[in-house]
UniProtKB/TrEMBL annotation:
Binding site for Zn(2+): H76, C104, C107
Organism lineage string: Bacteria, Pseudomonadati, Bacteroidota, Cytophagia, Cytophagales
Record-stated family: Belongs to the cytidine and deoxycytidylate deaminase family.
GO molecular function: dCMP deaminase activity; zinc ion binding
GO cellular component labels: cytoplasm
Keywords from the UniProt entry: Hydrolase, Metal-binding, Zinc
Name this polypeptide is given: dCMP deaminase family protein
GO biological process: pyrimidine nucleotide metabolic process
Cofactor(s) named in the record: Zn(2+)
Species this chain originates from: Fulvivirga lutea
Catalytic residues (positions): E78 (proton donor)
Length: 161
């Protein structure tokens, strides 16, 4: 019997593999934006195109920190996926986003504003940051965006950072 993979598994595996493209020293994150079982955009975290690749420019410590202690150059994977879609005049309202790390609060505000209807994430941002709740997930749920933690099985990926 030929068992076909579920779309959730395909898209999350792609997000995990995209994360490996990241030039960030701290964390690799990938995102896939889909609509009607079609991929409409992809993204991974890193500096804006044409600037510095942090792992090459600052291989030991990563890019300089901003005033809040975050990466001064990084664009989050979710933002990159949404920006690329909009740049290419792709409608994102009603889309589903697969992301390897639950969205931060700032990304969640953008996801909501852009009309993404559902977010499926692999790992908890709160667990990664050592905070008590996934603020971004809480925000999305409060304003009617469907959010769920991925529960499938990743069978076509290798080690993830």
């Amino acid at each position: 019997m030929n068992t076909k993979p579920e779309f959730d598994d395909i898209y999350m595996e792609l997000a995990v593999n995209l994360a490996k493209r990241s030039h960030c020293i701290k964390r690799h994150v990938g995102a896939v934006l889909t609509k009607d079982t079609r991929i409409i955009s992809i993204g991974y975290n890193g500096p804006p195109s044409g600037t510095h690749n942090c792992d090459i420019e600052w291989p030991e410590q990563g890019c300089p920190r901003d005033s809040k202690g975050g990466c001064s150059l990084a664009i989050h994977a979710e933002q990159n996926a949404l920006l690329y879609a909009v740049k290419n005049k792709t409608e994102v309202t009603g889309a589903t986003m697969y992301v390897t790390l639950a969205p931060c609060l700032a990304c969640s505000r953008i996801i909501y504003t852009m009309g993404v209807k559902k977010v499926i994430y692999l790992k908890s941002y709160a667990e990664y940051k050592g905070i008590k709740s996934d603020e971004g997930v809480d925000f999305l749920l409060k304003f009617g965006v469907q959010v769920e933690r991925y529960k499938g099985e990743l069978s076509n990926v290798t080690h993830m950072i």
